[in-house]
């Protein structure tokens, strides 16, 4: 099968993406065995997938329990102002809070959902009070604490 056209993914490309998601450090040799193509076409396809933006990068997945960061909470954030300038200001400021792992703008009864990881509930309370509540245009917050993570990426 020929290499797919620009922007189109074929079954080999999808197998490459699946394998890389499972193990970002997989060697080209292992990748070619998993995909069922020789190293040269797998290398070309992998390079194209990166260049075309299907693969945005690679990251280390840390053992948060060993790092003492096994407290996870989700903070719902309601803003006082949702005009574009206010949203940009909030977005810029929330990116600077190290403890906020994820931030999503939500359509619903609140404006943002933040995934916050800290050492314990005491530290979370500090982050919420000193950092999150001080973000631009925050009107109110509500917290849900994770009891067990069943699936994380």
UniProtKB/TrEMBL annotation:
Entry's Gene Ontology cellular component terms: cytosol
InterPro entries the record matches: ArsR-like_HTH, AsnC-type_HTH_dom, Dimeric_a/b-barrel, EF_Hand_1_Ca_BS, Tscrpt_reg_AsnC-like, Tscrpt_reg_AsnC/Lrp_C, WH-like_DNA-bd_sf, WH_DNA-bd_sf
Domain HTH asnC-type: 9-70
Origin superkingdom: Bacteria
Listed GO biological process terms: regulation of DNA-templated transcription; response to amino acid
Keywords: Activator, DNA-binding, Transcription, Transcription regulation
Gene Ontology MF term list: sequence-specific DNA binding
Residues annotated as transmembrane: none
Pfam families linked: AsnC_trans_reg (PF01037), HTH_24 (PF13412)
The protein, known as: Lrp/AsnC family leucine-responsive transcriptional regulator
Organism per entry: Allorhizobium borbori
Lineage, highest ranks first: Bacteria, Pseudomonadati, Pseudomonadota, Alphaproteobacteria, Hyphomicrobiales
């Amino acid at each position: 099968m020929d290499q797919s056209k620009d922007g189109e993914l074929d079954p080999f490309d999808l197998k490459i993406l699946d394998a890389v998601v499972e193990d970002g450090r997989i060697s080209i040799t292992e990748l070619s065995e998993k995909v069922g193509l020789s190293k040269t076409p797998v290398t070309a396809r992998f390079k194209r997938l990166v260049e075309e933006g299907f693969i945005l990068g690679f990251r280390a997945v840390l053992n948060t329990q060993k790092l003492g960061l096994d407290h996870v909470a989700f903070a719902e954030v309601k803003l006082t102002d949702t005009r574009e300038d206010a949203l940009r200001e909030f977005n810029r400021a929330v990116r600077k809070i190290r403890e906020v792992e994820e931030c999503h703008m939500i359509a619903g009864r609140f404006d943002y959902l933040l995934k916050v990881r800290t050492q314990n509930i005491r530290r979370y309370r500090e982050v919420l009070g000193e950092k999150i509540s001080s973000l631009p245009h925050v009107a109110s917050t509500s917290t849900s604490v994770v009891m067990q993570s069943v699936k994380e990426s």
